[in-house]
Design brief:
4-stranded antiparallel beta sheet; alpha+beta; NADH Oxidase; 220 residues; single chain
């Protein structure tokens, strides 16, 4: 699949068919997170893959799925045949940036932007796009809506679970009301040169000797 197609087709899916996910495909999708950019090559991400039905049910209970279903939605957490729990270790980044090749004269950097959250977001997007590429659908529920995943899944104290990616074969689902917001106008979110800058003008076309515009041949 072309990258542009995967990006266009990606959306959060909150209902799944009962068909299980092929184990090799599941491993490939989960491992995509570990190919995401990693500040300082810290490799502070880790994933927990959950397929056992009772464990998935426990995660759904911790997410308050019963109330979600009572509001008219599908039981998407428990119904998803696979969960991928993405975790990140902040301490791993502190250890890495105290090493000789990273530490400055004043010690560890002050972290104006916490790189561990940046890398976690990149890992999440890698999983979501890998799911589309594999012909699957995925959704995401952040840790704010979940109980103690660390305790439930035996995640070490150093690692923070950022949420659960649900994975499976898509089924019709209820449209999220958040989509009613639509897309923000491109000129409000895409700036050129500086905030509020306009895109540069297109270069003038250069006629060829025959009066036709020359088209460059693709690289071979």
């Amino acid at each position: 699949m072309e990258f542009s197609d995967a990006l266009r087709r990606r959306r959060m899916v909150r209902n799944y068919r009962p068909r299980p996910v092929d184990p090799d495909t599941l491993e490939r999708v989960a491992a995509a997170a570990l190919r995401a950019p990693s500040a300082g090559n810290t490799q502070g991400l880790a994933v927990v893959v959950v397929t056992e039905p009772e464990q998935r049910r426990r995660i759904a209970v911790s997410a308050g799925e019963e109330d979600y279903v009572a509001a008219g939605f599908d039981p998407w957490i428990s119904r998803a045949p696979a969960h991928i729990v993405l975790c990140v270790s902040e301490e791993a980044y502190h250890r890495r940036y105290r090493m000789d090749d990273k530490v400055g004269v004043d010690g560890e950097i002050e972290w104006p932007v916490p790189y561990w959250w940046v890398d976690a977001g990149a890992g999440l997007m890698a999983i979501l796009l890998a799911a589309v590429d594999a012909g699957l659908a995925a959704g995401f529920l952040g840790s704010h809506a979940l109980g103690d995943l660390r305790l439930l899944l035996g995640i070490p104290a150093e690692h923070t679970p950022i949420g659960v990616v649900t994975l499976g074969h898509p089924a019709p689902d209820r449209r999220s009301s958040s989509l009613d917001l639509g897309r923000r106008p491109r000129d409000q979110v895409l700036h050129w040169g500086r905030w509020g800058g306009e895109p540069p003008p297109l270069p003038p076309e250069t006629p060829t000797a025959g009066g036709c515009n020359e088209i460059a041949a693709p690289d071979t």
